[in-house]
Amino acid sequence: MPKILVIEDDINIRKSVVEILMLSDYDVAFASDGAEGVATAQDYEPDLILCDVMMPELDGHGVLKAVSQIPSLSRIPFIFLT
Fold it and tell me: Among 13, 18, 44, 69, which is least packed by CB within 10 angstroms?
Protein backbone atom coordinates (compact mmCIF):
# COMPACT_ATOMS: atom_id res chain seq x y z
CA MET A 1 0.00 0.00 0.00
CA PRO A 2 1.50 3.40 -0.98
CA LYS A 3 2.45 5.66 1.92
CA ILE A 4 1.56 9.35 1.80
CA LEU A 5 2.64 12.06 4.23
CA VAL A 6 0.32 15.06 4.55
CA ILE A 7 1.84 18.22 6.06
CA GLU A 8 -0.86 20.82 6.70
CA ASP A 9 -1.32 23.29 9.56
CA ASP A 10 -5.05 23.85 9.03
CA ILE A 11 -6.72 21.07 11.03
CA ASN A 12 -9.89 20.97 8.91
CA ILE A 13 -8.02 20.70 5.62
CA ARG A 14 -5.63 18.14 7.11
CA LYS A 15 -8.47 15.96 8.41
CA SER A 16 -10.29 16.10 5.07
CA VAL A 17 -7.25 15.22 2.97
CA VAL A 18 -6.21 12.42 5.32
CA GLU A 19 -9.72 10.97 5.38
CA ILE A 20 -10.05 11.01 1.58
CA LEU A 21 -6.68 9.32 1.17
CA MET A 22 -7.44 6.67 3.80
CA LEU A 23 -10.79 5.92 2.16
CA SER A 24 -8.85 5.43 -1.08
CA ASP A 25 -6.72 2.74 0.63
CA TYR A 26 -3.53 4.74 1.14
CA ASP A 27 -1.39 4.39 4.24
CA VAL A 28 -1.38 7.99 5.55
CA ALA A 29 0.71 9.85 8.11
CA PHE A 30 0.32 13.53 8.88
CA ALA A 31 2.07 16.45 10.50
CA SER A 32 0.72 19.81 11.64
CA ASP A 33 3.77 21.92 10.76
CA GLY A 34 6.89 21.89 8.62
CA ALA A 35 9.40 20.87 11.28
CA GLU A 36 7.19 18.01 12.43
CA GLY A 37 6.72 17.07 8.77
CA VAL A 38 10.45 16.74 8.12
CA ALA A 39 10.87 14.59 11.25
CA THR A 40 7.87 12.43 10.31
CA ALA A 41 9.20 12.00 6.77
CA GLN A 42 12.47 10.63 8.14
CA ASP A 43 10.69 8.11 10.36
CA TYR A 44 7.84 7.21 7.99
CA GLU A 45 9.70 7.23 4.64
CA PRO A 46 6.62 8.01 2.50
CA ASP A 47 6.18 7.35 -1.21
CA LEU A 48 4.71 10.85 -1.66
CA ILE A 49 4.65 14.08 0.36
CA LEU A 50 1.67 16.48 0.13
CA CYS A 51 2.63 19.76 1.79
CA ASP A 52 0.96 23.08 2.45
CA VAL A 53 2.92 26.10 1.24
CA MET A 54 2.07 28.67 3.90
CA MET A 55 2.78 27.46 7.43
CA PRO A 56 4.32 29.20 10.43
CA GLU A 57 7.99 28.69 11.30
CA LEU A 58 8.98 26.28 8.48
CA ASP A 59 6.92 26.84 5.34
CA GLY A 60 6.45 24.39 2.47
CA HIS A 61 9.46 25.69 0.56
CA GLY A 62 11.59 25.14 3.68
CA VAL A 63 10.24 21.59 4.01
CA LEU A 64 11.08 20.88 0.36
CA LYS A 65 14.60 22.24 0.83
CA ALA A 66 15.10 20.20 4.01
CA VAL A 67 13.89 16.88 2.58
CA SER A 68 15.88 17.48 -0.63
CA GLN A 69 19.06 17.58 1.45
CA ILE A 70 18.37 14.22 3.15
CA PRO A 71 19.62 11.45 0.84
CA SER A 72 16.95 8.92 1.85
CA LEU A 73 14.17 11.46 1.16
CA SER A 74 15.57 13.48 -1.75
CA ARG A 75 13.86 11.44 -4.48
CA ILE A 76 10.38 11.32 -2.91
CA PRO A 77 7.79 13.10 -5.09
CA PHE A 78 6.62 16.33 -3.43
CA ILE A 79 3.35 18.13 -4.18
CA PHE A 80 2.42 21.53 -2.75
CA LEU A 81 -1.12 22.01 -1.44
CA THR A 82 -2.32 25.58 -1.68
Answer: 69
Q: Is the whole model's pTM more than 0.90, yes or no? A: yes
pLDDT digits (tens, 9 = 90+) for 46-81: 999 999 999 988 999 999 999 999 999 999 999 999
CA distance 47 to 19: 18
Identify which of 25, 11, 67, 19 has the alpha carbon closest to the alpha carbon of residue 43: 67
Q: Is 45 left (phi over 0), alpha (psi -120 to 50) or beta?
A: left
**48: three-class secondary structure by DSSP:** strand
* d(C-alpha 60, C-alpha 66), whole Å: 10
